[in-house]
Amino acid sequence: GLLPRMHYRELPLDDAMSHCWLDSYIDALDPYRSYFTAGDIASLQRFDTQLDDLTTRFMPDISPAWIIYDTWRQRSHQRVEWTRAALAHDPDLTDHETIELDREDAPWPADEAALQDLWRRELEDDWLRLLLADEPPDDVRDRIRVRMDRLERNTDDFEPDDILELYLSSLAGCYDPHTVYLKPFSAEDFAIETQGTLEGIGASLRIEDDMVTITEVLPGGPAQLSGELKAEDRIVAVAEGTDGEWVDVIGMRLDHVVQLIRGPKGTVVRLQILPADAVDGSDRKVVTLVRDRIDLDRVDPTVEVREVADPDGGVRRIAHIEVPAFVGEAHPEDGDPRPSTTQQVNALLQQHGDVDGVLIDLRSNGGGLLDEAVSLTGLFIDRGNVVRIRDGLGRIERLDDEQPGASWTGPLVVLTSPYSASASEIFAGALQDHGRALIVGSTTTYGKGSVQTVLPLDDSLARMMPSTRGQNLAGALKLTFAQYYLPGGRSTQSEGVPSDIVLPSPFDARVERDGDRPHALPADAIEPVRFKPAHDLEPLIPALRQRSMARVQADPRFAAMVEWGEELKAIDEANQAVLSLEERKAELARRKARREEIDAILGEDADPVLDEALAISADLAARLKR
After folding, report:
1. pLDDT > 70: what percent of the chain?
2. Which of 280, 394, 299 is nearest to 9 (CA)?
3. Alpha carbons 208 and 205: distance in angstroms, whole number
4. Is it the case that residue 156 has pLDDT exceeding 50?
C-alpha cells in the first residue's frame, strides 16, 4: 500500500502496526473510555494482529471496522436510553463525589454497572457546567435532552464513507499525526481550504471529546484579527447573526458544525467559547465575528521603534517587527499588487536602518510559505543554507539563500512561543545556526518539522466498500513524506527550536506541542552543511541570561504569570471535579478571584514577555557595539 511505501518512516504494515491500528480506532470511537466496557475491549482483541492480514488481501476485508463500530453504536444507544430515563429526575448535586475529567488513560469500566455509574457522574457534571454557565435551570434538562437526540442521530447517520475515513485514518495516524485519510467530501473540503477560497472565520477545527476544538487560527482570517481566539479553544455553541438563537454543538458532527459557522461574506456569526486556559467548563465567553475571506493584506508585518535602557546606562533604539505569517507576493485581478512578507520586512529595515537592534516577533506565527522563510532568512545572512528537505529514501533537497549581502547585519533577536511553528521554526533555527540571532521566549517552539503532500487515491479503494449514492469512493491521503533539517543538521521535528534565553510562560506546561502527540515523528539529525557562522554568540549568552533572570525575578508580572501557570498545572494534574453544586460554585469563585488578582498585577494590555525581549535586545546591542 501507499503508507508503507511512501511514508517518511517506511514502517511495514505488520502485526505491530495492526495492534496500533486497533487501539487507535477504538480510541477514535471512544477517546474518553465512556462507551466500551473492559469486556467489550477483551472481545475486540481478537483483531489485535489480524487487521494487517485482512487489509492486504487481494479483496481487502475491512469488516472489523463495522464490527467494532457496531459495538460502539449499541453502547451509544444504551447511553441515550439511560440518560433519557435519568432526566426524569433532577440529579443529586449535594454529595461529595468527584469525576475524573480526562479519562484518556483511565481503565475501561469493568461492566455495565460501572459504565452506568460513569454515565451518571458525567450527567451530573454536564448539569453543573450548564448551571454554572448561567443556563436557566428549567432549560438545562432540555439542553441535555437535545444533546442525546443529536448523539442518537449522529450514531445512526454514520455512513460507510464516515466509518472508512475513521478506520483508515486510525491506521494513518499510527505512522504520524499529520498523515490522514480523507474521504471524498473531506478531500474536496481540504482542497477548498488550501486554495484559500473559503469564506468563514479562518480557523481549522477538529472534534475532541465531543467538543469542537480550534487546531489552528489562520493568518488574516476573522478569528485571528479578532484577537479573541487561539488554538485549543473549544466552541460549545454557535448563533447566526447578532440575535439568532444559540445552537449547542457539543456532540455534533464536525461537518455539521462547519456548515453552521460558514456563511456569506459580511454576515455575522457568534461563537460561545470555552477558552483553552479556562479554569472550569462553565468559564465561557462569547466571540462575535464577521465572516470574510482570508485577507492577506491584514497579516502584513508591522514595526514599532522602542527606546530601551541598556546595561551601560544609555538608551538603545530597538525596532520591534511583528511577523504574523509568511506569505508570498500577490497580484489580484481587482486590486493593487501585494508585496511578500520578505519584501515588506526589507522595506521596514530600510526605513528604520538607524536603530541599534532588531527584534523579530514570531509568537503568533504558525508558518506559511517555505520559500518566504528562506528569503526572509536571507535578509539577515550573506548567502548560505537555510533548510534541507530529506524524504524517506534519503534524497535531500537543499534550499539556500543565494543573494549576496544582507539587509540587516546588526544585533538581532527572534522572539518565539509554543505557537511558532513550521516556517517560523525554519527561520528562527537557521538564524540560530548561523550565529545571527539570539532566540528568546518559551523553552522551545511547536516542533513541526514534517512535510506533507496530498495524494488522490484511485478507484481501487472503492473495492473496500459498497457504492454510495451511485458513486465509487476514493478520496485522498494526506501523507508525511519528508522532514526539514537546519544548517547544523538538526531537525525542527518534535524538539522545535530551543530558546537561548527562556522567559517564563504560563503556556509552556499546558500547550501540546507536535512531539507530545501520539506517534509523532522523533527528533533526528543529518550531517551538517559546511558553513562559517556569522558570529559566535555563545560566549555572550551566560551574561545576557543572568541579566535577564535578574530583571524577571524583580518583575511582579512574571511572578504572577508563573504562579498562575503553576496553579493551572496543578488543576490539570488533579484531574478531578467535585459533583456538588455548592462546592463547585465555591471553587469556581475562588479560581475566578485568583485570575482577577493575576490580571490586576499584569495590568491592562501588559506584555512582560515583549518588554523583556526588548531589554535583551538592548543588552545584546550594547555588547556587540563595544
Report:
1. 91
2. 394
3. 10
4. yes
* Grid coordinates belonging to 422: 513550521
Is 533 within 8 Å of 434 (Cβ atoms)? Answer: yes
Catalytic annotation, residues = 422, 433, 448
Across-strand partners of 107?
A: none
Cα–Cα dist 147/42, whole Å: 30
Average pLDDT over residues 406-423: 95
Which residue has cell 530558546? 499
Strand, helix or coil at 577?
Answer: strand
Residue written as cell 511512501?
A: 6
At residue 158, φ and ψ (nearest 5 deg) are -60, 120
Q: What are phi and psi of 315, to 5 degrees?
A: -125, 130
- Cβ contacts of 547 within 8 Å, gap of 6 or more: 311, 619
**SS3 label, residue 286:** strand
* Residue carrying the nine cell digits 511572578: 559
SS3 354: coil
CB 183 within 8 A of CB 476: no
As given in the structure block, the three cell numbers for residue 579 are: 459533583
Cell numbers of 192, please? 477548498
Confidence grade of residue 539 (pLDDT, cut at 50, 70, 90): very high
Contact yes or no for 230/221 (Cβ under 8 A): no
Average pLDDT, the chain: 88
Distance CA 111, CA 99 (A): 18
Interatomic CA distance for residues 505 and 507, integer angstroms:
5
Q: In whole angstroms, give the CA distance from residue 439 to residue 425.
A: 11
The answer, yes or no, to whether residue 204 has pLDDT greater than 50, is yes
The DSSP symbol for 586 reads: H
- CA nearest to 363, candidates 75, 12, 609: 609
Nearest to 55 by CA among 22, 6, 88: 22
What's the distance, CA 161 to chain centroid?
Answer: 26
pTM of the model: 0.85
Adjacent-strand bridge partners of 216: 204
351 C-beta neighbours (distance < 10 Å), count: 11
The model's pLDDT over 7-18, given as tens digits with 9 standing for 90+, comes to 999 899 999 999
Of 7, 363, 384, the residue nearest 173 (C-alpha):
7
How would residue 484 be classed by pLDDT, with cut points 50, 70 and 90?
A: very high
Query: Which residue in 29, 57, 77, 100 sits closest to 575, CA to CA?
Result: 100
Q: What is the pLDDT, as a whole number, of residue 366?
A: 86
Taking CB atoms within 8 Å and a gap of at least 24, the contacts of 242-249 are: 242/268, 242/270, 242/288, 244/270, 246/270, 246/272, 248/143, 248/146, 248/147, 249/212
- pLDDT tens for each residue of 131-142: 998 888 889 999
Q: Give 339's Cβ-side CA count (13 Å radius).
A: 11
Give the span between the Cα atoms of 130 and 127, in whole angstroms: 5
CB 277 within 8 A of CB 285: no
Residue 407 contacts residue 344 (beta carbons within 8 Å): no
